[in-house]
Amino acid sequence: MEREIQSTKLKVRQLVITGMLSAISIFLGLTGLGFIKIPPVQATIMHIPVIIGAIIEGPIVGAFIGLCFGLFSMYQAFTAPTPTSFIFWNPIIALLPRILIGVVSYYSYIFMKKAINKNAKVSGITVILLFSFMLYLVFRTFFGTVQSTIIGALVFIILLGLFFKFNVSEKNWVLTIGTASIFGTLANTIGVLSLVHLIYIERFANVIKISPDKAGKFIIGIGITNGIPEALISAIITMPVVIAVLKIRK
Question: Which stretches are transmembrane (predicted)?
Answer without folding.
Answer: 15-36, 48-75, 87-110, 122-139, 145-166, 173-199, 219-246
